[in-house]
């Protein structure tokens, strides 16, 4: 991209509008990592020279880069286009305050690494959520949209929208089949597989009970 050198000389109001136009929805992956930290010197009386004490340190991990405008200049950083988020996790044990830059109104948050329960303290701030399995949403009270990655196909989710554990409407449940790229909302997904039908079992059908048993021959 060519650098626009006269940009700093533009009127302040125009520069602000340009910075706002740089904000786009992102998919942000977040997980909690950890490692054991030695709290004391290694001692000879410990097996194999193990440290006297160890602490399990947890920290936030995200492969998603910091938004470009925040790396550009102080003016862009001061506009509040993104917020320091996820710092409310009390399980984090690092020495420094940890956070992830997010625009919670438009960013799609994907929590990795198991259950969502470890993120309960920050759950009320999440509006758009991405997941790969059924999860406990009790604390995600403000979620407006959920994207579901159907790793084993979309059909295994047929009938799931009737469950009361979803925090948003069926229209805002987005099911994605990564194998063929099919994307349907909850209403469309249920209609698709309802139309395909399910096998009907009739107990009055002789074949339901298997092949007939041959009569016993007595001599």
UniProtKB/TrEMBL annotation:
<feature type="domain" description="2EXR">
    <location>
        <begin position="4"/>
        <end position="109"/>
    </location>
</feature>
<dbReference type="Pfam" id="PF20150">
    <property type="entry name" value="2EXR"/>
</dbReference>
<dbReference type="InterPro" id="IPR045518">
    <property type="entry name" value="2EXR"/>
</dbReference>
<protein>
    <recommendedName>
        <fullName>2EXR domain-containing protein</fullName>
    </recommendedName>
</protein>
């Amino acid at each position: 991209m060519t650098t626009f050198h006269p940009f700093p000389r533009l009127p302040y109001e125009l520069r602000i509008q340009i910075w706002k136009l740089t904000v786009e929805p992102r998919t942000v992956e977040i997980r909690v990592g950890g490692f054991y930290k030695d709290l004391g010197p290694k001692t000879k009386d410990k097996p194999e020279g193990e440290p006297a004490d160890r602490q399990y340190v947890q920290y936030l991990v995200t492969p998603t880069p910091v938004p470009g405008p925040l790396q550009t200049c102080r003016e862009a950083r001061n506009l509040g286009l993104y917020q320091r988020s996820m710092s409310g996790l009390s399980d984090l044990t690092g020495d420094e305050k940890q956070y992830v830059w997010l625009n919670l109104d438009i960013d799609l948050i994907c929590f990795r690494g198991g259950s969502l329960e470890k993120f309960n303290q920050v759950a009320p701030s999440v509006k758009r959520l991405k997941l790969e399995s059924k999860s406990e949403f009790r604390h995600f009270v403000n979620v407006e949209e959920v994207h579901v990655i159907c790793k084993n196909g979309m059909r295994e989710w047929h009938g799931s929208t009737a469950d009361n554990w979803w925090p948003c409407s069926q229209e805002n449940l987005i099911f994605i089949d990564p194998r063929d790229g099919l994307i349907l909302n909850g209403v469309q997904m249920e209609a698709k597989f309802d139309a395909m039908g399910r096998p009907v079992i009739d107990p009055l059908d002789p074949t339901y009970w298997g092949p007939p048993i041959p009569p016993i021959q007595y001599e």
